[in-house]
Amino acid sequence: MDSILVTGNGPLSGQIPIAGAKNACLALMPATLLSEEPLTLTNAPRLSDIRTMTALLQSLGAEVTSLQNGQVLAMSSHDLNNHVADYDIVRKMRASNLVLGPMLARLGHAVVSLPGGCAIGARPMDLHIHGLEALGAEIELRDGYLHAKAPRGLKGAVVDFSFASVGATENVLMAATLAKGTTVLNNAAREPEIVDLASCLRKMGARIEGDGTSVITIEGVDRLHGATHPVVADRIELGTYMLAPAIAGGEVECLGGRLELVGSFVEKLDEAGISVTETEHGLKVRRRGDVIRAVDVTTEPFPGFPTDLQAQMMALLCTAEGTSVLEERIFENRFMHAPELMRMGAQIEVQGGTARVNGVEQLKGAPVMATDLRASVSLILAGLAAEGETVVSRVYHLDRGYEHVETKLQAVGAKIERIQGA
Ligand code: UD1
User: Cβ contacts of residue 92 below 8 Å, gap of 6+?
Assistant: First the structure.
């Protein structure tokens, strides 16, 4: 298994290009199942999660061709010959459950394995099921698989989500595009990835209004056609690389970054003493002074502070002046990076969903272990600021969500390398 060696070596300087959003791409890819005509995605990120979704779609009979070194995904679901999303693929990645709504809408039936436990919390599928049942689907759990059918076709309905789940909103939104009549999603998720999905579906002929707000209205159509769509920039990758100069010093421009993707995160950076300015090509980030100030952070659905940046923000706050309180409200058990950061000298107390971080002057390099995708990159960020060498092992998590992390950080002067098979 590969590991990453980071040696703290001072300020960074230069530019980092931001890739297309993993989470947007993982929702856009299953949209191909809704139409017989080709769907092409450009600006796709090159990540193992995307390869997992490719394998899943291919197992259902879709054609997925990766072009231009993986940045273009040409897909066609003309002939779907299987309606079972197998456990062996679904267990690797929860987002596999996004094939349920589209398959049900197009074929009238679908069998999708439940994803099973995830390192960062239970993550059930009750909201997805509730939404699809409201559209008339009959769903049963047998042998660990959700068996869904809509013998009389899906029908538009009012769906009230008790929580603004990203995945449930995406699944039901896709299904509703082909349902008969009008669907209203109340308390829908407002994430930029939902807006990106809705905009792609509109190009395919769907009639959707209100995406980006908590009420989305969908007027069902008989069929969707082909389209070409560029994947929106990855706000989590953007936030992660914005933290690199915040932590290590210097100035970095994140190319393709836009303020509206990271509003609440930028507010917290500002409170901490980090300046962010818009440029012609992206966002430029540097510290305002020598001191990072402690800030309190609560994770919330968009437009609140994203849970997917909580671990990375914690890495910054480890060396802030004062005590920061981080409250995790989206996933239970999402502080697994805390004990690893403590191996590097951080002072953190975790109690339930709250972590108190008492800033220390200097982190020290140490061997640490990646426990999930965002936790792994938070350890790399911490390593940039630490004295000495940090070796992050189990980096396969990292490859699920960050393309060429070493190359991108090397380009701005970081001392970082991948150790093969260590
Ligand atoms: C998506 C993102 C993930 C991000 C998360 C929250 C993708 C591929 N992944 O995950 O990176 O961390 O949004 O921003 O886009 N829940 C239920 N029942 C359900 C569905 C969810 O209780 O049916 C709960 C989950 O357990 C969790 C919370 O709702 O506590 C948020 O989940 P959700 O918004 O659905 O996240 P995902 O779509 O899985």
Answer: 52
Query: Angle at which helices 310-317 and 263-272 pack, to 10 degrees?
Result: 10
Question: For tokens 């540097």, what's the residue?
Answer: 286
Taking CA atoms only, the protein residue closest to ligand 1 atom 25 is: 123
52: enclosing H helix or E strand: helix 48-59
Residue 375: strand pairing partners: none
Q: How many residues does the chain have?
A: 422
| Residues placed in the known binding site for phosphoenolpyruvate | 22-23
411 C-alpha to ligand 1 centroid (Å):
33
Residue 118 bears catalytic tag? yes
Any ligand 1 atom below 6 A from CB of 130 = no
Nearest in space to 29 (alpha carbons), one of 46, 44, 18: 44
- pLDDT tens for 304-353 read 999 999 999 999 999 999 999 999 999 988 999 999 999 999 999 999 99
User: Which residue shows structure tokens 């909103």?
Assistant: 169
Cα-to-centroid distance, 166 and ligand 1 (Å): 6
Sign of the torsion formed by the C-alpha atoms of 122, 126, 127 and 128 = positive
Instruction: Find out whether the beta carbon of 94 lies less than 6 Å from any atom of ligand 1.
Output: yes
pTM given for the model: 0.96
